[in-house]
Design goal:
The complex is a heterodimer of chains A (473) and B (213). By secondary structure, chain A is an alpha/beta fold. Chain A has 16 helices and 19 strands. Chain B folds into two domains: 168 residues, Aconitase, domain 4, CATH 3.20.19; 31 residues, no CATH class. Classes of the chains: A alpha/beta (473), B alpha/beta (213).
Chain lengths: 473, 213
């Protein structure tokens, strides 16, 4: 049993009582909602004659179905328009703040919470979206929930949960040039498996994690769920506090910053904390990681050979065979040179300003390959605006990328942005499941944003470090 | 002023019926219900879209899939392998299976959010080791009409004249057997303690805390 970790401390501070099932009832400090998983929950509230208990601790945005090209209302897709209208009505009736596209604050739910400063250390944060683990980058206990649980949170401000074990993932050393946070998490999932984190919360620690900015930490925590862990976190530190101080919430309430800091410090894992498991990763050994298959655990270093299914653990062989058939890859080959049709730079994993900056530095002065359609979908309207101000939009457009409005877009293909037929996509997103990007025959190769930029230029999966005259700094 | 949210929550002690085997590890929720079917504001009618892209081709003609086979049409139990339901938190996945007719899932392992979503619908997710599951899947293939009894409280599955031990997570078992798997009214009854907890947390502003009803 873990003791003295951030997880234990935040859990205890939010525990209301133990339920008859043995689960704990936890207070929820921030409930983020969006248009896809909340309408049914509001419907259930109405059926049961219930209202929203803590509207001020609830915040809404629209991201999954929002078009990224033409956002004029009504939306071109009737179903999307209906979902948006339903969300508008629900938040209006309940008095919930809504970062809708007219505010300039809209974006992917896991991008806007941190931007606005409502994501804070020591909060419990839930959302009907599995990538809620992203917010753990700030030292929050954040996890995805289903719609019935959304109903619970709306009606009571609490959630029924079983406490989990804590695995510390100690990432020592320094990342090499061209290697990023995304490569760390893809390596963790490759090593521990897509189900390795079931029953665990992941604490990411060590020099390589501490040296990351908040965006990199978010990319790592974001994909905890791809390793089976419902939540992942990084202990808050000066990097965290510097970010927070600049956000709306603390700009508007500067006294709160000093007031809350002792609490943030108090919930850091103790030096003497006990963990249920500890895993070590050496950052020095990593190179850019790409996936060859159809689960995020099927990754390899860019210069490594694709494994033969029979080399893998017995329970992985069948999945690997099906994945290699779908992806049309052969054991022994590397992924370098794999032809792509689409390059997608976006998603809650990798569509924040520094992600776009790094990719733009690769793209600058280059041209997207003739056979590739490439798009940039900023994570939020604020990222979009800031990138435009910095000239990144121009760099991408001059290189032949489409520049879109903020949303989830081709990460999950719920709007018009989808793969067609058996197109292959170099993607900075988080899931390479069959059908994930909108076409059941589509092929997704996950990688970091600079690797997406390199693939867009070459038309094939490439090692960004081999591109001549590129800026990796 | 809102109500107590009390609803009738049936106890789930047993699930009995024939089964359908769905083979393969790491079956994700995008496969169980592709995202394009989630552009809806209710869960009604999702049953027909369960495993849609594995069951139908681009012309919507049926492909080889157990859920398309006549012999499995009455199945109420699904037998799956490891890490079933990984990926997205979409409750649309268990909702689609439930609306297709599934009342219990037996497997080697489940993704956490998926299992939690099943529990919120009163669907047990019971586990056994890989070999036991494969034997059961083989038996179901040979006995598509064969009756399987899942005893949630006793943590057993009985089929073909034998009873095997399975595991049901402690909290899940209690919630199902005692009929407290729908937690809304239960947790709402603690509203006073919840307010007290909110007041103790340094980041919760007084204005965010509702008055006592």
């Amino acid at each position: 049993m873990s003791e003295g970790t951030l997880y234990d401390k935040v859990w205890n501070r939010h525990k209301v009582t133990q339920l008859p099932t043995g689960q704990d009832q936890l207070f929820v400090g921030l409930h983020l909602i969006h248009e896809v998983t909340s309408p049914q929950a509001f419907g259930m509230l109405q059926e049961r004659d219930l209202t929203v208990a803590y509207p001020e601790l609830t915040h809404a945005t629209v991201d999954h179905i929002v078009p990224t090209a033409d956002q004029s209302r009504p939306y071109g897709d009737d179903a999307a328009e209906r979902m948006m209208a339903e969300l508008e009505e629900n938040v209006r009736n309940a008095g919930i703040d809504f970062s809708d596209p007219t505010t300039g604050d809209q974006g992917i739910v896991h991008v806007i919470g941190p931007e606005q400063g409502i994501t804070q250390p020591g909060k419990t944060i839930v959302c009907g979206d599995s990538h809620t683990s992203t917010h753990g980058a700030f030292g929050a206990l954040a996890f995805g929930i289903g719609t019935s649980q959304i109903r619970d949170v709306l009606a009571t401000g609490t959630i029924a949960m079983e406490k989990q074990k804590v695995r510390k993932i100690q990432v020592d050393g320094e990342l090499g040039e061209g290697v990023e946070a995304k490569d760390i998490i893809l390596e963790i999932i490759r090593r521990l498996g897509t189900e390795g984190g079931v029953g665990y919360v992941y604490e990411y620690a060590g020099e390589a994690i501490e040296n990351l900015g908040m965006e990199g930490r978010m990319s790592i925590c974001n994909m905890s769920i791809e390793g089976g862990a419902r939540a992942g976190y990084v202990n808050p530190d000066e990097t965290t506090y510097e970010w927070l101080e600049e956000t709306d919430y603390f700009q508007e309430n500067p006294e709160k910053f000093e007031e809350l800091k002792p609490y943030w410090e108090s919930i850091r894992s103790d030096e003497t904390a006990a963990y249920d498991d500890v895993v070590h990763i050496d950052a020095n050994e990593l190179e850019p990681v790409v996936t060859w298959g159809t689960t995020p655990g099927q990754g390899i270093g860019i210069s490594d050979p694709i494994p033969a299914p029979e080399e893998l653990a017995e329970d992985k062989q069948d999945t690997a065979r099906r994945a290699q058939e779908h992806m049309r890859v052969e054991p022994g080959d590397t992924m370098e040179g794999y032809e792509i049709d689409v390059a997608f730079l976006g998603s809650c994993t990798n569509a924040r300003l520094p992600d776009l900056r790094r990719a733009a530095a690769i793209v600058e002065g280059q041209q997207v390959h003739d056979d590739v359609r490439a798009m940039v979908v900023p994570g939020s309207q604020r990222v979009q605006e800031a990138a435009k101000q910095e000239g990144l939009k121009d760099i991408f457009e001059e290189a032949g990328f489409e520049w879109r409005n903020a949303g989830c877009s081709m990460c999950l293909g719920m709007n018009e942005d989808q793969l067609e037929g058996d197109e292959a996509c170099a993607s900075s997103s988080n899931r390479n499941f069959v059908g994930r990007q909108g076409s059941k025959d589509g092929r997704t190769v996950l990688m970091n944003p600079r690797m997406v930029a390199a693939a867009a230029i070459n038309g094939t999966v490439s090692d960004v470090r081999d591109l001549k005259e590129v800026n990796l700094a | 002023m809102s109500g107590t949210g009390e609803v009738d929550i049936p106890e789930v002690n047993y699930v009995s019926g024939s089964a359908v085997p769905i083979r393969g590890n790491d079956i994700d929720t995008d496969q169980i219900i592709p995202a394009r079917f989630m552009k809806v504001v209710t869960f009604d009618g999702l049953g027909e879209f369960a495993f849609f892209d594995l069951r139908f081709d681009e012309n919507d003609d049926p492909k080889d899939h157990p859920m398309n086979e006549e012999r499995f049409q009455d199945a109420s139990i699904m037998v799956v392998n490891n890490n079933f339901g990984c990926g997205s938190s979409r409750e649309h996945a268990p909702q689609a299976l439930m609306r297709w007719g599934i009342d219990a899932v037996i497997g080697e392992g489940f993704a956490e959010i998926f299992a939690g979503n099943c529990l919120a619908l009163g669907i047990p997710t019971v586990t056994a080791d890989s070999e036991t599951i494969q034997d059961l899947q083989d038996w179901v293939d040979e006995n598509p009409d064969g009756e399987i009894d899942v005893d949630v409280a006793a943590e057993t599955v009985t089929y073909g004249g034998q009873t095997i031990d399975v595991t049901v997570d402690d909290a899940q078992r209690k919630a199902l057997v005692e009929g407290v798997w729908d937690t809304t009214a239960l947790m709402k009854s603690n509203a006073g303690e919840v307010r007290k907890k909110a007041q103790e947390l340094p980041y919760v502003r007084d204005t965010a805390i509702p008055e006592a009803e």
